[in-house]
């Protein structure tokens, strides 16, 4: 397993366990989250990232992301997930693109 795939797997596992510390640990301090294809920045920095996901976990204690497919190319991982168990009762199909370095996920795009 490549380092990029390892980071993607670890963050997904922590997401499903709602382990905010382990989840956030997979991301760089200067993490940038963007919409794809617009590249509009929706979140920047680890503190804002932690806050958003802490709130998400608190509001959706039963959510679970099932990995449907994963593509790995060098330092980029593309995950197709189905998120269920949300408080709204609505399932969410998500496609996330992760760019990594040797230590962390540095950028994330969510396909809109």
TrEMBL record:
Transmembrane segments: none
Any Pfam family hit: SnoaL_2
Domain of life: Bacteria
Listed name of the protein: SnoaL-like domain-containing protein
Residues in SnoaL-like domain copies: 11-107
């Amino acid at each position: 397993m490549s380092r990029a795939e390892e980071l993607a797997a670890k963050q997904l596992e922590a997401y499903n366990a709602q382990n905010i510390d382990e989840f956030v640990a997979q991301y760089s301090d200067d993490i940038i989250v963007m919409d794809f294809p617009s590249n509009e920045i929706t979140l920047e920095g680890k503190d804002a990232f932690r806050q958003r996901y802490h709130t998400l976990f608190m509001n959706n204690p039963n959510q679970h992301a099932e990995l449907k497919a994963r593509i790995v190319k060098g330092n980029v991982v593309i995950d197709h997930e189905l998120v269920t168990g949300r408080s709204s009762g609505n399932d969410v199909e998500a496609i996330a693109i992760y760019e990594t370095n040797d230590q962390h996920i540095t950028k994330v795009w969510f396909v809109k």
